[in-house]
Every structure is written in C-alpha cells, then in structure tokens.
Write a structure and sequence with these properties.
By secondary structure, the chain is α/β, with parallel strands linked by helices. The chain contains six helices and eleven strands. The chain has two domains: 219 residues, HUPs (Rossmann fold, 3-Layer(aba) Sandwich); 31 residues. The strands form two sheets. Strands 9-8-7-10-6-1-4-5-11 form a nine-stranded mixed β-sheet, with helices on both faces. The structure holds flavin-adenine dinucleotide (FAD).
Length: 268
C-alpha cells in the first residue's frame, strides 16, 4: 500500500502569537509541535504497515521552513519519505487555499511516488480548528472521504475504517483511493526509535517551492486566494475571578444565583 499523511506543524498552544497587521498567526520562531490529530493519522498508517510490511508511508506538510522539524519527527516515528511545501506566496492561506495547494502537491508527488491508495489527515488542526482541509482535499481530488476515523485496516482493494459515532463506532468500507481523517483513538501512539531518530536527523526532506508549481493559479493561493477575511483576532484577556456561590443546599444555591441575576437585571 502507498499511504500519504498530511501533517501540520502547529504552535505549542501555550505560545500563540498573532500578527496585529495581517491578523494571521506568527509561526516563525514559535515553539511548535506536530498537530496531535496528525500524530493519530500517522499511527493509523503505521499500524497498517505493521500488518503489511511493504506499505510505504509518505508525509506532506505545507508551512515555513521550520516545519521540517515536524516532518523529521514523523520520519523518526514511522514515515519513509517527507515533503515540505514552503514559499512566501503560500503564506496566510485559509483552508480553501491550503487544501488547493496541498491537492496540487499531492498530484505532483504521485508523479514520483506513484498513486496514493489512501490519504490520511488529522480530524482538525489545534490552531485553525476548522476541520475543513481534509474534506476539501478529498473534494479537489474527487476522492471518497471518511471522517472521524479511529483505525483503518487494509482489505484488498478496500479500506475498512472504524469510524467514531455519537453512539460508539461503526465500520465503513471504502474503495481505494480514498481519504480518511482521524480523531483520538483508544490506543497509545508509538515512540520514535533511536535508530529511526538518527536516520531522520540525516534524512533528505524534499522542499517544494512556488517554482515547483509553475502552472498553479496564483489567485487561488496565499492571502489573495483566501476568501476567509479575518476581521479581528485577539488573545482574550484573563477573566477576573467570578463569584462563587456555595450554600448548604442546592435549592439555596439556586435561589442565591437567581437573586444575583435579578440584581444584574437578568431575567430568565
Ligand atoms: C486561530 C485561527 C483561526 C483560523 N480560522 C480560519 C477560518 O475560520 N477559516 C479558514 O479558512 N482558515 C482559518 N484559519 C487559517 C487556517 O488555519 C489555515 O488555513 C490552515 O492552513 C488550515 O486550516 P486549519 O488550521 O483549520 O486546519 P484543519 O482543516 O483543521 O486541518 C485538518 C487537517 O488537514 C491537514 N492540514 C491542515 N493544514 C495543513 C498544512 N498546512 N500542511 C499539511 N496538512 C495540513 C492536517 O492533516 C490537519 O489535521 C485560521 C487560522 C488560525 C490560526
């Protein structure tokens, strides 16, 4: 099997900084991590490889040059090959522009790596949180898509996907090629091995810049290609301590709360 995993490098959530002018996240020089949901997608691919050793896992990321760290982490865990799409023109892309660029990159990678039987994404990125890119890539590439995957099993020309539902889970069978987005599974992720880490530190990561996409429609990438207009972004100020109501019975506590709300002119 030939699996591609889309991986996003995200700011370590304690370090969120926003560019006050462009209203986009400052990513350069900010401690960053592999988006946790993409870690689950990579582990799902690695579990297929455990059972089908001839499986090849390629990881793809769009981001600033520092995103190579995220790709090296994936190489040290389970990936065989890594690609980074990076270039000023791609910066500030919203989900539509991001998914368009990634889809063009996937077509380019398939010229080299062969057709991907499955494309795995995280359910969502913990910074943009839109959960849009995975399904958008599937639409651009006219692929069957299954979201909220917990685990996937190769079964001939099909992929069997354990999908999370409100009631628990269901097993979906999808003909390959297809795209699956992954949410948090019940099992633990594997750790990088020393051997893989040493190899990952030396591994060549192929960088794809704007020059590698001579035919890409410039009006569909970066800020120019992003219909999303961020009106305002801000780091909310820390809330003052609220009022704690603790009477000796639930009834008294509810009455106290009602009194406070009425004092504030809030009627229920
Ligand atoms: C605070 C904040 C709010 C934002 N709000 C919006 C918004 O409302 N609408 C909007 O269009 N954009 C928004 N953006 C921009 C958005 O973050 C980027 O477009 C981003 O590249 C993709 O969207 P996402 O982070 O929501 O990813 P998601 O759609 O949540 O990501 C889903 C999956 O797609 C893959 N993926 C996503 N980005 C990449 C990448 N760069 N490289 C490789 N794989 C990737 C990963 O597998 C990931 O798990 C916001 C950004 C920030 C920081």
């Amino acid at each position: 099997m030939n699996i591609l995993v889309c991986v996003k490098q995200v700011p370590d959530t304690t370090e969120i900084r926003i560019d006050p002018v462009k209203k986009v996240l400052i990513r350069e020089g900010v401690p960053s991590v592999v988006n946790p949901f993409d870690g689950y997608a990579l582990e799902a691919a690695a579990r297929i490889k455990d059972k089908n050793p001839d499986t090849r896992i390629t990881v793809l990321c769009m981001g600033p040059m520092q995103a190579q760290d995220a790709l090296r982490e994936c190489l040290s865990i389970a990936a065989d090959k890594a690609y980074l799409v990076s270039g000023r023109g791609f910066g500030g892309s919203d989900t539509l522009a991001t998914s368009h660029i990634l889809s063009q990159a996937i077509k380019k990678l398939e010229e080299k790596e062969g057709r991907f039987d499955a494309i795995f994404c995280g359910k969502q990125a913990i910074d943009g949180d839109t959960a849009q890119v995975g399904p958008e890539i599937a639409e651009h590439l006219h692929l069957t898509q299954v979201t909220y995957g917990l685990e996937a099993f190769a079964d001939g020309a099909f992929l069997k996907i354990k999908k999370e539902t409100e009631a628990g889970y269901e097993i979906i069978q999808a003909k390959m090629p297809c795209l699956v987005t992954f949410t948090k599974p019940s099992w633990h992720l594997r750790y990088p091995t020393i051997q893989r880490k040493l190899a990952a530190d030396k591994a060549e990561i192929t960088i794809l810049t704007e020059e590698d996409f001579p035919d890409i429609d410039k009006s569909r990438i970066g800020l120019a290609g992003s219909p999303t207009r961020v009106k305002k972004t801000f780091v909310p100020s820390k809330q003052k301590e609220g009022v704690k109501i603790e009477e000796d019975s639930a009834d008294k506590t509810a009455r106290k709360l009602m009194e406070l709300l009425e004092k504030k002119g809030i009627s229920l």
